[in-house]
Fold Hexosyltransferase.
Amino acid sequence: MQLHFSPSMRSITILSSTSNNGGFIDLMKIKVAARHISYRTLFHTILILAFLLPFVFILTALVTLEGVNKCSSFDCLGRRLGPRLLGRVDDSERLVKDFYKILNQVNTEEIPNGLKLPDSFSQLVSEMKNNQYDARTFAFMLRAMIEKLERDIRESKFSELMNKHFAASSIPKGIHCLSLRLTDEYSSNAHARRQLPSPELLPLLSDNSYHHFVLSTDNILAASVVVTSAVQSSLKPEKIVFHVITDKKTYAGMHSWFALNPASPAIVEVKGVHQFDWLTRENVPVLEAVENHNGIRNYYHGNHIVGANLTDTTPRTFASKLQARSPKYISLLNHLRIYLPELFPHLHKVVFLDDDIVIQRDLSPLWEIDLVGKVNGAVETCKGEDEWVMSKHFKNYFNFSHPLIAKHLDPDECAWAYGMNIFDLRTWRKTNIRETYHSWLKENLKSNLTMWKLGTLPPALIAFRGHVHPIDPSWHMLGLGYQNKTNIESVNKAAVIHYNGQSKPWLQIGFEQLRPFWTKYVNYSNDFVRNCHILES
């Protein structure tokens, strides 16, 4: 760029070099009047030129680049100063719109057969560079890679759910060891076989001035936590009587534990199902059929993948179906609660507990609750916000496409929880709850389990209809085996916390932040616990 003054000083021309032949073109010419120019005027003119020169330089650069970009200088300037300001569409925006159009087209077409997919994004970029892919081919590659990734993630999720189901259904090595060692102790140690409770305390087993708890389980460690937490949390532990019911194979080990580790001052009775005269085939024919029916056993113990249409199943639905196929649901121990009036004919009120709970508060006020003529005092599970536990209605448990279910039940009826229930046995004995329970179990067996899938709660929801009295939710907090994000403050305030769900606190899949509420009641100094390597986590 050069400044050229005419010989007469009547004009000043700004010259710009061209990009092709090295010549000059007139970029700007300033004419000066013919009269004599004063120094003052010349000074002002030079001052103005000094101000204009930077802009002239920018404009010259744009003109130089014009030959390269094949666009007008105003277009080039517009792209740099803002396409919206000058009303032009940016090339990048145009490119994005074109790519959106290609993606929409590719989304409606079939992915070409034999399309070889790269294993990583870096490999995709490398192949694009080497093979000069067009936008359409790239879009197909991108779609195919994302769909493959989605399939892989889905398969991994189902595999995770299956592994978690197997982990939840299995017996940990340490707990199995504990049962075996205690069973062996029962056969070799007279102290482990001593009568529970001692003969002078036997009358208290039917004394209704005491607080009677019933616990049905084959898990010795879990039973010890329930009993220990109840005794330590009670204001009057000397008024507690525990009736622990277990199966025949676990009886010796369970008896050994409580004989060698008394829960004083509470009283503990341990009985096996084989020791109840009332539990005969004639009195529990339906449950006998449930345990022995080959189709039922295959359903609960067989391959859970065979016959499952995973393509149309969400991981959450699959998880629910797996939980419904837990073998515990065909165990007599899990159905025993429906026979409490017959098993304890002299008792008036009992609190029935699941083995995956922890008691954190004195429960004696439960015996003072007026059930207003109802049988079952329970926490309702339809008035919460979480989807897994506290927003359950009958429609969550029953198949309302079945004509019998649709005819007799209301899908929006509120469900309630097992796990911590106060039962009025005197009122119960005046009802037909047990008969109703049996009749609906029979109907579900006849329908090949198409009326409901999930264990003992659905038939109980039907049998206890009209016999449930809601109690305050603070008595029984559920979901600690489902929800990793359980509110710790709410856990601390609850009277009973319930690890219902797959993530039991004694399993490795249990939630780390919730496990201490359970492990605090495990006696890790006990020789049997230490020798079986049940270590505090």
The CA atoms of residues 105 and 243 lie 70 Å apart. Residues 66-70 have pLDDT under 50 and may be disordered. The two ends are 80 Å apart (CA to CA).
